Amino acid sequence: MLANSLFGFEARVQFDSIEMLDREVRVVAHINGRTSRCPACGCRSSRVHSRYIRTVRDLPISGKNVSLQIRVRRFICTNANCLRKTFVEDSSSFVDSHSRCTRRLIESEQQIGLVLGGEAGSRLAERLGITVSGDTLLRRLNCLASKPIPALRVIGVDDWALRKGQRYGTLICDLERKCPIALLPTRSASELANWLAQRPEIEIISRDRGGEYAKGAASGAPQATQVADRWHLLCNASNALLKTVEANISKVNECLKEVAPIDQATPILTDTRTAVQSNGVKDALVAPPCRSSPVSSRRLRYEQVIALKQQGKSIREVAKLTGI
């Protein structure tokens, strides 16, 4: 029972021996039970035709590969009308037919491939004790992609770059299962509409603010509710806040002075050019407006440098004063 809980197999798999070698752990096991069910007719049989050893790989233990050697029996079907004369006892609970890896090892390799891809996933797997090539990880992903798509209710639609800045496609994700389900070669409304028309069960479509996706969703899935995704909502809200603050700098200054009074000679937010012309270098080094956009921050710093240079400061002095 301890070995079953360690390897995660069902109770009817009995372990005969566990041998610790230099680079691997070799486990010998067999399947309990006097009878087995024929997969073709369903009749049970206790007549053993032959035995053989099936070797499969399992998840590593303490960085060592695990070689699982299963003693498998082949039974004779007692049903005279069955097309199959012999069959192998069932071991599909932990390893697929004709597979050389356990199911949980394949699932682990698929997860590594999904996160890191081929070569990078292979390097990480080697550190974890899983010997697998990058090509094998990609083949695992192809097997994962060939599975039928389940019923969809909530999906997300966004673009992805085939070649950044030149060619884009459409990525469709199942937001309830948190996994990608389709890649469309373009981001046109017609192609999205054709894909959605084949799945009338979709209820909610989360998308960006692009007009093409709005047209495609309305045409292909009129029954679905369209919502803006969270990233674009937060981005639009932050941009609106920045514009509001920049448009009301004087009011922000008054609020900040009431909360934390400071030296009146050093204003909190001001126009850089006016400060330089009136008060000289000291006010030219006033920090840019709080939470300003990257473009406005760069412009203010540029104007500070130009103003100091026009006052006759050397490049070394300008760098020391501005901290650049």
Layout of helices and strands, plus pairs?
Blueprint: H1 2-7, E1 13-20, E2 24-31, E3 36-37, E4 44-45, E5 48-61, E6 64-76, E7 86-88, H2 103-116, H3 119-128, H4 134-145, E8 154-163, E9 167-174, E10 179-184, H5 189-197, E11 204-207, H6 211-220, E12 225-228, H7 230-247, H8 249-259, H9 272-279, H10 281-284, H11 294-310, H12 315-322
Parallel strand pairs: 2-6, 8-11, 11-12
Antiparallel strand pairs: 1-2, 3-4, 5-6, 6-7, 8-9, 9-10
Described by strand count, sense and barrel closure, the largest sheet is:
5 strands, mixed
List low-pLDDT spans.
263-290
Estimate what percentage of residues fall within beta strands: 25-35%
Mean pLDDT: 82
Helix and strand pattern:
HEEEEEEEHHHEEEHEHEHHHHHH
Number of helices: 12
What's the total count of β strands?
12
Overall helicity: 25-40%
What structural class should be given to the helix and strand makeup?
A: alpha/beta
Q: How much is the radius of gyration in Å?
A: 33 Å
Indicate the multimeric state.
single chain
Give the end-to-end Cα distance, rounded to a whole number of Å: 67 Å
Looking at the structure, what is the overall shape?
A: elongated
